[in-house]
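Ticket #4471: structure output looks truncated?

Reporter: J.K.
Steps to reproduce: submitted the chain below (53 residues) through the standard prediction queue, then opened the result file.
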Amino acid sequence: MDKSVLMLMPISVIIAASFGLGWIICTLVFWDRAKALERIAKSLKEIADKMPR
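Returned output as attached by the reporter:
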């Protein structure tokens, strides 16, 4: 009983840590991507405004 609990503890800690890292990485990647998309949309809008109708 004690040994199985001790064996499971590090695994759950590792899983929790990897999930946390995954969340952080996903947040950073998607945050950067959202900012980049915003910039691209702004530049496209500026180009469209400059073009003659």
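Triage note (M.O.): checked the attachment and the full token line is present. Residues 3 and 9 are 10 Å apart (CA to CA).
Status: closed, working as intended.
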